[in-house]
Amino acid sequence: MRSYRSLFRTPEFTPYLLSFGTFAAGQTIGGLALATLVFRATGSPFLSAVSMVGPQLAQLLGGAFLLSAADRLPPRAILTALALAFAAGTAVLALPGLPIWAVFAVVLLQGLVASLGGGVRGGLLNEILSKDGYVLGRSVSNMLWGLTQMAGFATGGALLALLSPRTCLLLAAALYLLSALVTRLGLTARPPRSSGRPSLSATWRTNSLLWSSRPRRLTYLGLWVPNGLIVGGDSLYVSYAPEAAGTLYAFGALGMFVGDMAVGRLVPPAVRPRLATPLRLLLAVPYLFFFLRPGVALSAVAITVASVGFAASLVLQERLMSLTPDDLAGQALGLHATGMAALQGVGTALAGALAQLTSPATAMTLMAAGSVTVTLTLAALGSHEERQPTVPDARPGGVPSEPAAAD
User: Fold this and answer.
1) Can you tell me the distance from the alpha carbon of 72 to that of 67, in angstroms, rounded to the nearest whole number?
2) pTM of the entire structure?
3) Distance between CA atoms of residues 68 and 29, nearest Å
4) Average pLDDT over the chain, rounded to whole?
5) Which among 81, 139, 198, 219 has the fewest CB atoms less than 10 Å away?
């Protein structure tokens, strides 16, 4: 599948994208409205920030306990229930007089539920599209996510100037309901990809199985660590250039858009596997020049070029899918999403600590140097892996042929 026309002619891809887009719009507008509401109620920048990223942080708990459901429950039912749960939770957040502790309790519950979303959507996309269309479809999803965030934050800011945060939260709840409706009516009911019931033991057993394969382990580390270190550096735009942070983030989004489009649409499938290391290096190397403290114009150029390298995730996700049996695709992608969120959080904390001890420019340079070091190390380990003799296995991805015992 080499064209957008053939992609959008694929049955169910358009409703899949609409469902994802409306859900992402609800998250963006709702997150901004909630952060504004918390800040007005408490005057605390810390609590405001935590309210906005709280669901992402809570996904770590969900990833540890709930991920087995990504393959063991029907995907349409999970995505519909997920959207309805967010609609209900967001409506509760709009209630007048809701205590702050209750706000964060709802945010925690939303994060736990959301931990299933990445794995279920990724696994479903793997079913909707043919193998040769996965990267193109994933690139379109990534581009839609970036555009939705930019438009959502701009729209949310404009709405907050006209409406109250609680009204904006109700609008976000309506978007979640629309996502649930599109999911229910536009997608086909599919059976679970894997047998057995979801449970804590099933989640841990499958996570251990996925992590036990050295090629998959190297792929996960390549997806998580270089990306997380650079995202940590990106979190310093506000302290590096307070008057132009929005501009720098916008140019970063532009670079991501270009990278996803180029890798998904223009790069031949035979060439893509060879781009994983170059793209990860591209993601970091331009930031090495920040030790010179470039001005806004040069910083924007460097950030745009570097952000093209985020497309390495497309290449590595394709590799991950080639190493993973179809009945584990949802949990494999869910583990990726959970690990990525964790490493981005660690990277942000590390970058902030370095900036506190040195300066934002120095911290960004050090984070980039760390990312380059990790990428080169993983590339060397991967080359060593390719030179080792392979042992035939009954299932792709090195998963034993014996089925896991049902819980």
Assistant:
1) 9
2) 0.72
3) 30
4) 83
5) 81
